[in-house]
């Protein structure tokens, strides 16, 4: 049976949340507790969302173990972002951090403890005391399973608050009315293959990252950028998509992450000469410099022939000097990952690691209330009824480079603030808005193209081509020529996406159909990334282009970070195939702005 208007089931909720990771669950809690009817959709069981894989910690300037305050955190985050982060949002996040972390503790989060009963905190990359003077202990941790503990805590609270979970449901498209307001989503129930229209007064996208546009990634297989694809298809431009974070320590050859918490606890990186090379690149913070910095330094060592192993293509991370007891107490999962993915006993020998794609700094543009915004050339305009939080959103607190542990914090702070704003919005809303008769047309066209296809390319082949192109053309170091070639390749792949074929057309738990639908999202994210990257003619944060690097011996050279021309956010509009820009907000809410300066660590 093919999909048609006649067999779409319609249901109504106050709010539909797409995504049940940390950000979606934190927002859902606010809504359910306020008595709203909430549908929380997830492609997988909620506690299998990628948040579960977060290891190292969540940042908050609690100052439990070394002197700290939110002003230091604010400064570090701006400097970490290479001055592309909006300072109002960064102030909001860093001020709120202690509150939301203590609140999480009260929800039942099993943090590690200090002897005096306070939350255990470890150092993390780029987090400092006294404005860059020395590393600070700011990452609140539950061993190296912080995300696991956090996701389960939030899930349990949602169960208690009677959030409705739609487990193994895949949202496909946003429904907008003629005024452009968002009035619902279309979604597939994967178990039956049935199509639904879910009508809502507000829709919140919390679909996580899209790390699966790259071949080697620390991300879960479900991280295909569905929320970004939905927003792009609904005509909403995506912001700062050129900025992708490489985590310095993915297991070489496997991609699985070894948390920065390793270096927080004292692990060090070594080249083939046994040298702790980070001392040369970042004399103050050394191995705990921000991720863009450490990843580049590692790549540089490898390029200059000081990589380790028979092919000189990885770096070694040494942990054994921490002692087996500390490792088992603070980093038990890292020990397991060492055994399972690197065949290494980390208590005795170093582990081969390489920079690996980890996190997208860009996303769906929002304000600090989680409301999705578009830019009219002068100011932000709210898209009524649409919110976004978590890794799929760009508020923008991470700018051109995120500091480790600031993402789990982002989920808590903006999940809560979006939840609060939605409660107000829905309470003043009245009846549901009418849903246009053609609300599901885009979705039906996508589903029917697949069902009617007789020949063409398989989804997994196109996805493989996207990943290979991204890996080759949007790496740690980029070149203008490489990015231009990458753009041509991705544009050509896009042409083929419309002819994806589906061999198995059955309805019940058809994962092939799901993967084919995900390709529509992968291509949106990949194209946004390549095009935005090729257009940015400078080096900033994670976007390092050989052609624009400032020579080390010439501080006056106009290359490098070019604040005069490029201190601005990129907006990629898929509908019109065009780029535009909007200014960075350098004005915090209450304190003085941190002016741009050279980034050394
Ligand atoms: C290995 C690893 C370790 C990390 N460690 C840390 C750390 O220690 N500290 C830190 O701050 N950050 C860390 N990060 C980053 C951080 O964990 C993520 O950015 C964050 O958890 C993302 O949360 P989220 O709520 O945005 O999305 P996710 O947790 O990824 O959840 C996305 C949700 O959306 C659902 N979904 C997606 N598409 C659809 C669809 N079409 N229909 C229905 N549902 C859909 C999924 O099923 C899922 O429920 C780590 C990331 C990784 C990959």
UniProtKB/TrEMBL annotation:
Entry note: cofactor:
Flavinylated by SdhE, about 5% flavinylation occurs in the absence of SdhE.
Similarity comment: family membership: Belongs to the FAD-dependent oxidoreductase 2 family. FRD/SDH subfamily.
Kindly report the protein's main subcellular placement as a broad class: membrane
Residue ranges occupied by any Fumarate reductase/succinate dehydrogenase flavoprotein-like C-terminal domain in the UniProt entry: 466-600
> Which EC numbers characterise this protein's activity in its record?
1.3.5.1
Topology in the lipid bilayer = Peripheral membrane protein
What is the protein name given in its UniProt record? Succinate dehydrogenase flavoprotein subunit
Q: Tell me if Repressor is a UniProt keyword of this record.
A: no
Q: Which GO terms describe its molecular function?
A: electron transfer activity; flavin adenine dinucleotide binding; succinate dehydrogenase (quinone) activity
Listed cofactors: FAD
List the active-site residues: 291
Recorded catalytic activity of this chain's protein: a quinone + succinate = fumarate + a quinol
Provide the residue positions that the database annotates as binding FAD.
Answer: 19-24, 42-57, 226, 391, 407-408
Summarize where substrate binds, as residue positions: 247, 259, 358, 402
Is Transport one of the keywords UniProt gives this record?
Answer: yes
According to the UniProt record, list the residues that bear Tele-8alpha-FAD histidine.
50
**Gene Ontology CC, one term:** plasma membrane
Q: Tell me which domain of life the UniProt entry assigns to the organism this sequence originates from.
A: Bacteria
Q: Which InterPro entries match?
A: FAD-dep_OxRdtase_2_FAD-bd, FAD/NAD-bd_sf, FRD_SDH_FAD_BS, Fum_R/Succ_DH_flav-like_C_sf, Fum_Rdtase/Succ_DH_flav-like_C, SdhA/FrdA/AprA, Succ_DH/fumarate_Rdtase_cat_sf, Succ_DH_flav_su_fwd
Q: Residues in domain FAD-dependent oxidoreductase 2 FAD-binding?
A: 14-408
Keyword annotations for this protein, in alphabetical order, are:
Cell inner membrane, Cell membrane, Electron transport, FAD, Flavoprotein, Membrane, Oxidoreductase, Transport, Tricarboxylic acid cycle
Q: Which residues form the signal peptide?
A: none
């Amino acid at each position: 049976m093919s999909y048609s208007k006649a067999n779409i089931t319609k249901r109504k909720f106050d709010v539909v949340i797409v995504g049940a990771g940390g950000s979606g669950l934190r927002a859902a809690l606010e809504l359910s507790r306020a008595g709203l009817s909430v549908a929380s959709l997830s492609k997988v069981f909620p506690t299998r969302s990628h948040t579960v894989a977060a290891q190292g910690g969540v940042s908050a300037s609690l100052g439990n173990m070394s002197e700290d305050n939110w002003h230091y955190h604010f400064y570090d985050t701006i400097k970490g972002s290479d001055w592309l982060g909006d300072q109002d949002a960064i102030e909001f996040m860093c001020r709120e951090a202690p509150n939301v972390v203590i609140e999480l503790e009260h929800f039942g989060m099993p943090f590690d403890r200090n002897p005096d009963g306070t939350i255990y905190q470890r150092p993390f990359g780029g987090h400092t005391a006294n404005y860059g003077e020395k590393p600070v202990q700011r990452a609140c941790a539950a061993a190296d399973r912080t995300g696991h503990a956090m996701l389960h805590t939030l899930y349990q609270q949602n169960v208690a608050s009677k959030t409705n979970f739609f487990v193994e449901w895949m949202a496909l498209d946003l429904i907008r009315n003629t005024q452009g307001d968002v009035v619902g989503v279309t979604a597939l129930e994967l178990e039956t293959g049935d199509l639904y229209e879910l009508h809502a007064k507000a829709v919140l996208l919390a679909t996580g990252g899209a790390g699966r546009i790259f071949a080697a990634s620390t991300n879960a297989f479900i991280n295909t950028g569905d929320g970004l694809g939905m927003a792009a298809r609904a005509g909403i431009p995506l912001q700062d998509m050129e900025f992708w974070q490489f985590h310095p320590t993915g297991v070489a050859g496997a991609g699985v992450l070894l948390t920065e918490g390793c270096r927080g606890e004292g692990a060090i990186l070594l080249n083939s000469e046994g040298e702790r090379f980070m001392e040369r690149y970042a004399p103050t913070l050394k191995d705990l410099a921000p991720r863009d910095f450490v990843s580049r330094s590692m790549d540089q060592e490898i390029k200059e022939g000081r990589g380790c192993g028979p092919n000189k293509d990885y770096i070694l991370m040494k942990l054994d000097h921490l002692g087996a007891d500390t490792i088992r107490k603070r980093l038990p999962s890292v020990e397991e990952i060492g055994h399972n993915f690197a065949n290494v006993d980390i208590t005795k020998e170093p582990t081969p690691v390489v920079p690996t794609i980890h996190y997208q700094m860009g996303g769906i543009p929002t304000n600090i209330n989680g409301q999705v915004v578009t830019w009219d050339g002068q100011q932000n305009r709210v898209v009524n009824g649409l919110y976004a939080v978590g890794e799929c959103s760009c508020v923008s607190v991470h700018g051109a480079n995120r500091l480790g542990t600031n993402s789990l914090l982002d989920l808590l702070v903006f999940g809560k603030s979006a939840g609060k704003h939605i409660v107000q919005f829905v309470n003043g809303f009245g009846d549901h808005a009418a849903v246009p008769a053609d609300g599901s047309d885009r979705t039906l066209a996508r589903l029917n193209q697949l069902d009617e296809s007789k020949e063409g390319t398989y989804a997994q082949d196109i996805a493989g081509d996207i990943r290979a192109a991204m890996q080759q053309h949007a790496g740690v170091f980029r070149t203008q020529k490489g990015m231009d070639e990458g753009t041509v390749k991705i544009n050509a792949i896009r042409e083929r996406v419309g002819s994806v074929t589906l061999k198995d057309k059955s309805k019940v738990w058809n994962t092939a159909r799901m993967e084919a639908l995900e390709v529509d999202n992968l291509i949106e994210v990949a194209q946004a990334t390549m095009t935005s990257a090729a257009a940015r003619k400078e080096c900033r944060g994670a976007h390092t282009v050989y052609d624009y690097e400032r020579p080390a011996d010439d501080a006056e050279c106009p290359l490098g970070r070019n604040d005069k021309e490029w201190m601005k956010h990129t907006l990629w509009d898929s509908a019109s195939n065009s780029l535009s820009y909007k200014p960075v907000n350098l004005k915090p809410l209450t304190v003085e702005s941190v002016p741009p300066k050279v980034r050394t660590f």
